[in-house]
């Protein structure tokens, strides 16, 4: 009965007054919107002034990292390193350094939003981030347009810095990592046939695989890659991919990807009776991955840092301070890279003797033999670091140092 | 041959998981004409209860699983009472939106309360071990999952077709009002349906967590979607249809990836493609009845 009445009511009003009412509503809404916009504009202007005032005593470093979602563990380790560096070196140019940390939720769109927020709302002088190549690629163009320099901690895909004068990084890149693992498989493990498993949604995984494939074919012949299978981020069932690979009997499997999926994948491979060595990249260095593969053998990956083999004075300092600040946690490569990104940013400001983003960018571009926790960092014309890679393996329930490969 | 057998084993195990979860969708749809989107998230809830039971309260695994099933079933019944029952006479779309709301609520509660970082699900040694047959190697779960599914399917089919409650269910699914005029307690029948459906979802969720031992608050979303597809494919509202749909989907996916590895990135798309084809040729699904909508 109620519904019926309301129908009648609407019908009557529609005849005349409703039209006017609608009109009034629309105009009111427009007015409200206009005021709101004006308010925003005014507010924005005030904020800008405030930011400039504040700029006299505070330097802001923006951080965008995945703190939730599939890459959360990687982001968390990196942020720990950044915070540690901030505690040790809280000031530069006589001003306090303030960290503005934003979660990019492991999603490309959110990464773009995070950078947008850092450059337009927080007005940071320099940005650090992000774990994950895809996320960094999403954020890169926005920082470039705003003219704010970014230091990547661990995005290893070449495209991150390519064509972007404002993106730098303290880690080595995929061609190097893929080539190192191909050489390792061929020379040290004696592999003649390799299979590739890639996460088609991750630029990181696809990139590493491409360079591995190229190098391995050069070493072992055109037919050396016996299988190439795909999966998607978030997949949990790898049994059919692995069954297909098992049928091809490879000597080695190269399967770089997110530690979440890779952990399940490696465990499943062993369950299915695949005993050959499984190789991956730097993302595998995480507790989550280790917990899954603890009891397996012959799992190798390349990484940036090893706490048992300190390469510089800064490595020792980082290790000591990290153990003090985060008792019970493993000293890891991502923390070290986050640490390095921060001290490199400070170094650039010191060199430029300014916190102006453009001046910081120019100083960063000239980085040579900078002493970081992960080794000596020299940035090339693309803004990529030329560095030593470290190979680790899983043994006795832990990651163990296996060897290192210097850049040519 | 070895590849074929191993793939077959993988397919049966995935297919029976799908079938188990798909039945929950189909039963609720059959009775209320409602697609219960929250069903998928019950998998997650069951996974987490079992996880906390074992890891935090140190309960024996079987006891923890039983508690997970009981609590999840209770949650399923409460969801119906709180979110669907008050809307029973509202337009069908409102109930559907309410179901989506409950689903989002559960997922985000999970993210806020537990955190988005995936947790490692414990695998009891008595339940999970490696079996080797010649060159084929597989987990005991590959055998356990189909057996559990089969037993539950037989039990549900028996209940629906041979018991008094089942008869009431079928009556209610035919005609709500007539059934209530015949002194069938409709509310009780609906609650029972949710009880059974949610228990199956809980068992499915636990088996899923054992098979893919990494649980997170959004873990139910994709299997839920796939099982919904399986239910529609088999003919939504039909229990044998849901089983058939589940098996077709599971087998299809696994065989596609194993024999055409270059297409393996498209495994999820595959499910939707079969769905479209089946609906094009048989809009009611494979075993769906052609019921004329009452005007």
UniProtKB/TrEMBL annotation, chain A:
The keyword Transmembrane helix applies. Residues 59-394 form the Leucine-binding protein domain. The chain crosses the membrane at residues 23-44. The keyword Transcription regulation does not apply. Pfam families: Peripla_BP_6. Belongs to the leucine-binding protein family. This is Amino acid/amide ABC transporter substrate-binding protein, HAAT family.
Automatic annotation (TrEMBL), chain B:
It holds the Pfam family BPD_transp_2. The keyword Electron transport does not apply. Its main location: membrane. The keyword Transmembrane applies. Keywords: Amino-acid transport, Cell inner membrane, Cell membrane, Membrane, Transmembrane, Transmembrane helix, Transport. It is a multi-pass membrane protein. GO terms for cellular component: plasma membrane. It comes from the Bacteria. Signal peptide: none annotated. This is Amino acid/amide ABC transporter membrane protein 1, HAAT family. The lineage of its organism: Bacteria, Bacillati, Bacillota, Clostridia, Eubacteriales.
């Amino acid at each position: 009965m109620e519904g019926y009445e309301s129908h009648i009511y609407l019908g009557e009003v529609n005849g005349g007054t409703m039209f006017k009412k609608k009109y009034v509503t629309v105009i009111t809404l427009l007015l409200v919107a206009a005021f709101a916009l004006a308010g925003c504009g005014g507010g924005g202007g005030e904020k800008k002034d405030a930011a400039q005032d504040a700029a006299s005593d505070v330097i802001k470093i923006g951080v965008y990292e995945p703190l939730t979602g599939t890459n959360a563990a990687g982001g968390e380790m990196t942020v720990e390193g950044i915070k540690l560096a901030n505690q040790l070196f809280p000031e530069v140019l006589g001003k306090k350094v303030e960290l503005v940390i934003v979660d990019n939720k492991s999603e490309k769109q959110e990464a773009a939003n995070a950078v947008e927020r850092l450059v337009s709302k927080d007005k940071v002088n320099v940005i650090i981030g992000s774990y994950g190549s895809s996320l960094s690629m999403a954020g890169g163009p926005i920082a470039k347009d705003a003219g704010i320099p970014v230091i990547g901690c661990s995005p290893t895909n070449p495209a991150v810095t390519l064509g972007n004068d404002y993106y730098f990084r303290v880690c080595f890149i995929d061609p190097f990592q893929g080539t190192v693992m191909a050489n390792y498989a061929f020379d040290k493990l004696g592999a003649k046939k390799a299979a590739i498993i890639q996460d088609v949604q991750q630029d990181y995984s696809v990139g590493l695989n491409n360079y591995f494939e190229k190098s391995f074919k050069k070493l072992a012949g055109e037919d050396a890659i016996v299988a190439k299978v795909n999966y998607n981020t978030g997949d949990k069932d790898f049994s059919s991919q692995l069954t297909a690979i098992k049928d091809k009997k490879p000597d080695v499997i190269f399967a770089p990807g997110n530690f979440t999926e890779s952990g399940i994948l490696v465990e499943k491979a062993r369950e299915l009776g695949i005993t050959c060595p499984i190789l991956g990249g730097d993302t595998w260095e995480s507790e989550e991955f280790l917990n899954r593969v603890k009891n397996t053998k012959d799992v190798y990956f390349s990484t940036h840092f090893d706490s048992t083999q300190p390469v510089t004075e800064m490595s020792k300092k980082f290790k000591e301070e990290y153990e003090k600040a985060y008792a019970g946690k493993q000293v890891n490569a991502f923390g070290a890279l986050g640490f390095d990104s921060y001290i490199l940013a400070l170094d650039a400001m010191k060199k430029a003797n300014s916190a102006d983003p453009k001046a910081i960018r120019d100083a960063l571009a000239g980085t040579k033999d900078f002493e970081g926790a992960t080794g000596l960092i020299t940035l090339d014309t693309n803004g990529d670091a030329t560095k030593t890679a470290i190979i680790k393996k899983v043994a006795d329930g832990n990651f163990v140092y296996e060897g290192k490969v210097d850049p040519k | 041959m070895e590849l074929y057998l191993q793939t077959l084993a993988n397919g049966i195990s995935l297919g029976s998981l799908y079938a188990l979860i798909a039945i929950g969708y189909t039963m609720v749809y059959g009775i209320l004409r409602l697609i219960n989107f929250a069903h998928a998230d019950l998998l997650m809830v069951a996974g987490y209860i079992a996880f906390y039971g074992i890891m935090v309260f140190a309960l024996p695994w079987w006891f923890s699983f039983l508690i997970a099933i009981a609590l999840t079933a209770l949650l399923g019944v409460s969801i119906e009472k709180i979110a669907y029952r008050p809307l029973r006479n509202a337009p069908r779309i409102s109930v559907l939106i309410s179901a989506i709301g409950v689903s989002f609520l559960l997922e985000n509660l999970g993210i806020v309360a537990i955190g988005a970082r995936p947790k490692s699900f414990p695998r009891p040694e008595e339940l999970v071990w490696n079996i080797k047959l010649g060159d084929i190697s597989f987990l005991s779960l590959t055998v356990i999952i189909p057996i559990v599914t089969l037993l539950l399917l037989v039990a549900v089919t028996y209940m629906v077709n041979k018991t008094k409650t089942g008869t009431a269910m079928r009556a209610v699914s035919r005609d709500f009002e007539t059934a209530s005029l015949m002194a069938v307690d409709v509310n009780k029948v609906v609650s029972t349906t949710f009880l059974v459906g949610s228990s199956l979802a809980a068992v499915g969720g636990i088996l899923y967590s054992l098979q893919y031992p990494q649980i997170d608050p959004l873990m139910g979303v994709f299997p839920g979607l796939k099982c919904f597809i399986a239910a529609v494919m088999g003919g939504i509202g039909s229990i044998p249809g849901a089983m058939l749909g589940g098996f077709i989907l599971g087998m299809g996916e696994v065989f596609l990836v194993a024999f055409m590895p270059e297409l393996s990135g498209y495994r999820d798309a595959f499910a939707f493609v079969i769905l479209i084809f089946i609906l094009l040729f048989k809009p009611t699904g494979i075993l769906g009845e052609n019921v004329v909508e009452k005007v």
